[in-house]
UniProtKB/TrEMBL annotation:
Name recorded for this polypeptide: Bifunctional NAD(P)H-hydrate repair enzyme
Residue span, YjeF C-terminal domain: 213-471
Gene source species: Gordonia namibiensis NBRC 108229
Family the UniProt entry places it in: In the C-terminal section; belongs to the NnrD/CARKD family. Belongs to the NnrE/AIBP family.
Gene Ontology molecular function, alphabetical: ADP-dependent NAD(P)H-hydrate dehydratase activity; ATP binding; metal ion binding; NAD(P)HX epimerase activity
Taxonomic classification: Bacteria, Bacillati, Actinomycetota, Actinomycetes, Mycobacteriales
Gene: nnrE
Amino acid sequence: MPTRYLTADEVRDAERASGDLLASGTLMRRAAHGVAQAVAAELNRAGGCYGRSVGVVVGAGDNGGDALFAAAELARRGVAAHAVLLAPEKAHPAGLRAFRAAGGRVDDALPGGLDAVIDGVVGIGGRGPLRPAAATVFAGLDPETVVVAVDLPSGIEADTGEVHDPSVRADVTVTFGFPRRAHLLAAPRCGRVVVVDIGVGDPLQPDARQLISYSDAEIDWPVPGPADDKYTQGVVGVIAGSHRYPGAAILAAGAAVTATSGMTRYVGSAHAEVVSHFPEVVAAPDLADAGRVQAWVVGPGMGTDAAATALLRTVLDSDLPVLVDADALTIVSNEPGLVAGRAAPTLLTPHAGEFARLTGAEVGADRVSAVADLAARWGVTVLLKGRITLVADPSGRVVGNDAGSSWAATAGAGDVLAGIAGSLLAVGRSPQEAGAWAARVHAHAALLASRGAPIGASALLAALRPAIREFATGRTATETHTPPR
Ligand SMILES: NC(=O)C1=CN([C@@H]2O[C@H](COP(=O)(O)OP(=O)(O)OC[C@H]3O[C@@H](n4cnc5c(N)ncnc54)[C@H](OP(=O)(O)O)[C@@H]3O)[C@@H](O)[C@H]2O)[C@@H](O)CC1
Ligand SMILES: [K+]
């Protein structure tokens, strides 16, 4: 099952539906126990709990209550616990009593040299950046102090993942029942996310917009069977680049060649350059001579003149799946009717600038709503590029993928992504699967190629085969979610 990321309203619905567990405080005790366990695990990594010191930053709501109960539990295990109350009159009364009873101390500021700090400033009830008092506490921490956020790093918006300034950067985030949207959308700020089971059920409304992500095991990369030949595995056609600027053509066609063992065709004035790099590509200068394909990739480096527009129109008039990228998106932004309401599978792959051209407005802080709105309005699938790639289908289902690094933010990387996704469309994957899986292997190839050093798109393309091999064989070994501090 894909992982589902909840909105704050969905979390509150789930908690309310638990009835007595909420009213009796059982949910909070379970949540706090989960936080204490996570902090203890961090302390146990280096010497254990006894005699160590932990700070707690306590806000005005139940997030602070979780933090106080957790710190009380740690204090009972021999940890010296220090709390700063940001709103003393509002600090969770029962949590504060438990904290004091366990020997915790309330101070005006946190002492230096703490082993860990628990961020209990705000959770799903927070809005906007850290207020000055909390910002001062976090700015004063020693760099080696481990920060464990309760539910969310404070200053990160729960539903959109908007990272306010200032806000907390956590090493570990402990959340309850189900991950929140921000855990994916602001993954680099959350560190390792631990989901604690507190006994609440899934509040899914069938028609609700959903944000999900696939695990490595759910990427079902097409593998040829005994009866397959070069045609049955999907023939992808690439319309990209030009004789003058052949790079996009070579990268997109090369990615398609690498991503499928079927056939890749190319149409355009860079046909000679493409074939000299990839002799297996069947290339033609004109669409009329192209031969049959099962899906088109159209746009990278193709230009936006009348000839390019006519070519795009012809391809979109077909009943084949089409991936629309780069220059083709610029053409579409002047003529949305080319794709809006198209009956055949259609995947648009804009970066933020192209997205703004398509819609006439910046993406804004709420990327999930922005991409889902466009997909619903035009009845197409939209892949919005970024560190966290989002792929929305017209029903409002959004698949997210955290690239785990930003090494793929390099010229030509988008052409590679288009070639991969196009080859998946050609084997009959839905536009959403094609986009989401392509983003995943693309990110993994970037990690394999980079290993900490800058890469160009050629290196990314060269690493595509080993990356796909890991997914196709179910042996993804590399941890992709390693946020830099
Ligand atoms: N429900 C449950 O059973 C369970 C809930 N659980 C826990 O409860 C958490 C939700 O608790 P919650 O609803 O009390 O809200 P919460 O996030 O603590 O903060 C709200 C208060 O903070 C304030 N504030 C707002 N923005 C701010 C800012 N930028 N900077 C500073 N302060 C700011 C604002 O007060 P104000 O100062 O504006 O009056 C507001 O009243 C949830 O995340 C989880 O940890 C778990 O125990 C599991 C069971
Ligand atoms: K928090």
